[in-house]
Amino acid sequence: MILEQRDLSRMLETAIVAARLAGQRAMEEINFIKASVKNATELVTQADARCQKIIIDRIKETYPDHGFIAEEGEEGKIFKQPPRGDKPLWWAIDPIDGTNNYAHRMLLFTISVAVVYEGEPIVGVIFEPATDSMFTAVKGGEAQLSSRRIVAGKEKMDEFSSVGLDSHFDNGVPGWVCEIMQRTRFRNLGTTALQLAYVAKGGLIATIASDPRIWDITAGTVIAEAAGAIVTDWQGGKIFPVDLDGYEGQMFQVIAANKKVHPEILKLLKS
Question: Over the range 211-230, which residues count as b (16 or more CB within 10 Å of their CB) and which as e?
């Protein structure tokens, strides 16, 4: 199967519509949230599953045979529906990335929708409903924020730049985190997808994530790389391709950074 530019454009258009519909629903429900604990470590709200269904239903109107992998399955498990037929196309969906923020009625959350072909992300959309910000990209194209081109930039690591970090560490705060905290105005937005999008537009010089899952990073990887950023694991290796047929929710270690900063971040993590 050969994908042409018109195929990518059509999938991007579908992802944008689906993300916007889900974002509108999330905003409608934010003052009526019912949150519960999922898997003993994460919060989930009634809006997560509803927004996910909105996205999948909208995509299926156009692509009924495509596969889906998403955060909200039954009994705390992932949602996984392999492609039907011979088209190796999957949609990776996080209906509300930043659920902890959302559950506390904080407006820092996003809807993340991506398309994966033969294990590689080829379309990415990250929508921030509170600001009506739509980050988009297709593989080989340019990254955009609400239809305007964005680039990762060349800002260096200093006291005026910002690096996205995790909000907690299971085994204490590593030394490299402390160094970044001392050298930059570090940030945690509570949504991995949005931090990747901010790397793409140059708001963050880098973001480092220790435990995201596939739906957290797929759209952001397309957008960040299209904007000129480098996305790797903590050893500097490629994250994709990922075998989605065999994926069961494994976590990744991710660095996304502009080209000037990425080697420096990699060196810090290895030291």
Answer: bbbbbbbbbbbbbbbbbbbb
Give the angle 184-226-114 at the CA atoms, nearest 5°: 100
Q: Return the percentage of the chain with pLDDT > 70, whole number.
A: 99
Specify the pTM: 0.95
**Domains within the chain, CATH numbers bracketed:** 5-149 (3.30.540.10), 163-270 (3.40.190.80)
Residue 130 near residue 27 (C-beta atoms within 8 A): yes
What is the dihedral angle through the alpha carbons of 144, 28, 213, 239, rounded to the nearest 10 degrees?
-10
How are strands ordered across the β-sheet holding 148-149?
79-81, 67-70, 89-97, 110-117, 120-128, 133-138, 144-145, 148-149
Q: Count how many residues are written for the chain.
A: 271
* pLDDT tens-digit series, residues 51-95: 999 999 999 999 999 999 998 888 778 999 999 978 899 999 999
Residue 29's SS3 state is helix
